[in-house]
Backbone:
């Protein structure tokens, strides 16, 4: 393994393994952890495609691995699950831990351009550094066959990263994504602090804005949204994304689910559908 990358946890599950790693990130300027679920079929002679999962506000790389139950379907389909953390940690920037929706655990999967938050470059970490790290160190993974998914802030990250990198990912899906962050309180707070007052910079990290420019899609976008989600009406705004998709005939399957909330109970209920969605795009 590359110097500085170390395994810090391993648990067997559905005949595969959840493994957790720590490394120093040149992009973020700090030590980072990430988790991988290796399906039982993964080997250097039969490399597994990768599904990146981007988590939401306050989460680490462990929430999805512990709570989602995605390993059952991933094991059957032969997909590796790669789960990064949600922000840099340990930099001790003033104000980084003052609120749940900004700073630590709230990287918003962008590259900050404000000097104070210059280390918050989760976009480059996810798109550039992490895939190279995986390719260099895990011969059982095929990072050229990749899809991306996420929840809430991570759903925002998955959608925006996918749309701006259609050559890198075969498909995208999201649970309750922050689909139009320039028009909600979470997004406005994060973007003002990370990106300043230039609204054009904000639009580069808003899926509802990006779909007008990047819509030559090879796979339908899948979004699941619980109708009892407390953040649905004011923060998530999937209807705005749906309207933008319709304007450019971008393929979107937006499923609204009565009674479901914003939690991992919701994710665990429908995660198999998402694994199946990505399996089809990855031609498994």
Residues:
């Amino acid at each position: 393994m590359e110097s500085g990358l170390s395994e810090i946890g391993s648990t067997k599950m559905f005949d595969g393994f959840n493994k957790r790693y720590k490394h120093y990130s040149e992009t973020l300027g700090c030590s980072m952890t990430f988790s991988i679920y290796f399906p039982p079929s993964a080997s250097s002679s039969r490399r597994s495609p990768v599904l990146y999962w981007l988590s939401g506000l306050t989460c680490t790389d462990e929430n999805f691995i512990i709570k989602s139950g995605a390993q059952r379907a991933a094991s059957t389909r032969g997909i590796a699950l790669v789960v990064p953390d949600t922000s840099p940690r340990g930099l001790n920037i003033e104000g980084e831990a003052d609120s749940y929706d900004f700073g630590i655990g709230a990287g918003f999967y962008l590259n900050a351009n404000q000097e104070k938050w210059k280390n918050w470059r989760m976009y480059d970490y996810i798109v550039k550094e992490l895939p190279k790290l995986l390719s260099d160190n895990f011969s059982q993974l095929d990072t050229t066959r990749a899809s991306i998914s996420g929840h809430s802030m991570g759903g925002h990250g998955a959608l925006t990263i996918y749309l701006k990198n259609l050559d890198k990912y075969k498909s995208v899906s999201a649970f309750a994504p922050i689909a139009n962050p320039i028009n909600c309180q979470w997004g406005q707070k994060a973007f003002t602090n990370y990106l300043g007052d230039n609204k054009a910079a904000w639009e580069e990290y808003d899926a509802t804005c990006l779909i007008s420019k990047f819509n030559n899609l090879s796979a339908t976008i899948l979004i699941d949204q619980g109708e009892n989600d407390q953040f649905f009406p004011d923060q998530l705004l999937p209807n705005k994304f749906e309207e933008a998709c319709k304007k450019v005939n971008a393929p979107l399957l937006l499923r609204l689910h009565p009674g479901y909330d914003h939690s991992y109970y919701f994710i665990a209920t429908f995660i198999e559908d998402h694994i199946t969605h990505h399996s089809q795009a990855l031609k498994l």
